[in-house]
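In the current project phase, our protein records have gained a structure token line. A sample record follows, to show the layout:
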Amino acid sequence: MDDVLVGVLAALAGFGLAFVVIRQLDARQKRDATAEAKQIKEQAEREAVNRLKEAELEVKEQVLQKKADAEKELSKLREDLRDHERKLEKRDESLTQQNDDLRKQEKIVEGTQKRLTDRLESVAERQSEVDKLVDQQRQILHEVTGISKDEATRRILSLVSDELNQEIGSMVLKHERKAKEICDVKSRDILLTALQRYAASHTAETTTSTVDIPNDEMKGRIIGREGRNIRAFEKATGVDVIIDDTPGVVIVSGFDPVRREVARQSLDKLIADGRIHPSRIEEVVAETNKEIEKFILKKGEEAAQEVDILGLHDRVLYMLGRLHFRTSYSQNVLRHSVEVAFISGMLAEMVGLDGGVARRSGLLHDIGKAADHELEGGHPKIGADLLKRHGESAEVVHAAFGHHDEIVTEYPFTMLVATADACSASRPGARRESLERYIKRMEELEAIANSFPGVAQAFAIQAGRELRVLASAHETDDSSAAKICRDIAKAFEEQLTYPGEIKVTVVRESRFSEIAR
């Protein structure tokens, strides 16, 4: 019994101890859960505060961005407003100038009318004096001679008729001289006014272009191993590359401005790229040629827009752009054409003709110079045929054909264009003769060489002291190439007059290429 009792007591004690332990564990878990909940709550509060701050920052950034956009838009609007104001100011200045011109014209007309009125009054006074003189003569004749009235009338009329014929003849001559003086002064004023309203800069072309290089080591890369790079470049472009001791500069020389510009841009690209070898040179030169074609068309469009001429054919615009690379006695032909267009338009407006037709005629009058080395005939006929073929009006075609007074003038615009052309060409500093003669000589050298069969290309270099000829490898052999060289030299001696000597170099080479696939 005692053992049983002890066991029961022990069991009860164990249950009590277990209950106490369980209660303590529950209390601890509750405290842990409370602490964890508090920690979660605090973390949630912190995250809420952080998100609130982030939202505020985002709102502020959006506000600042909106403000910046608004300021940009306001700045753009202000700039547009300033541009509009500048345009209005220019328009006001133009209107003011036109008003001044009109007032000058009105004053001239008023002066002319006043002089005519005075002349008429003088004639009327003379007529009155003649009538009085006739009456006096009639009375004297009746008293002295006693002749009949009819006979006296006949004699008096004969006498008065002779006097009046002399008086009228002298007055006509006097008025003719006066009218001629007025016309000379008026025409001179019109020309001077037109030239003063349009004052263009004088354009002088050169035959060399310089290309900057980063260092002198680049000169060796341009020359290449045994000179293969520079030979390939000169062959592809048709210019002469001069590499001397001048630091940081390579000179490109050639009389043809288009070739020289292609060579200059190609050399710039090759230097920037760093890859300089014959195949790369050919690729760059071909690419630059395409860019120059686009540039020529752009120049034609800009010139047409500058003089406010619309509706020109694309071929006409292209040929007009080619004039940017043509010179006449060192005067840039495109700028000369623009100048002639403006002067022709001003002269036409001053004499009461259509200024638009005059500007169109002046702009296109020398367009034949863009193709005169490709077709037979002078540039007036070539230009007239080109304009007629592309739908230009008869006035414009006739101005191009007759602006050098080679045909009978049928339209007044032709005379205006011829006058404007003479003003543009003859004003001081506009032209120099030496460069034009030099370019003509270069073109003659190339033309003579290209006339021989088997010649693929010919380039005049070294200021005309050397001619480089590329013979076709398919049409010639070494013996015929040597004969071509000798024949060209003999043709120069027979057909040209030149100082010193001209070296003729004929190059014949074969090139083979295959594609590995």
The domain at 321-431 is CATH 1.10.3210.10 (Hypothetical protein af1432). The CA atoms of residues 173 and 179 lie 10 Å apart. The longest helix spans residues 2-144. The longest strand covers residues 455-461.
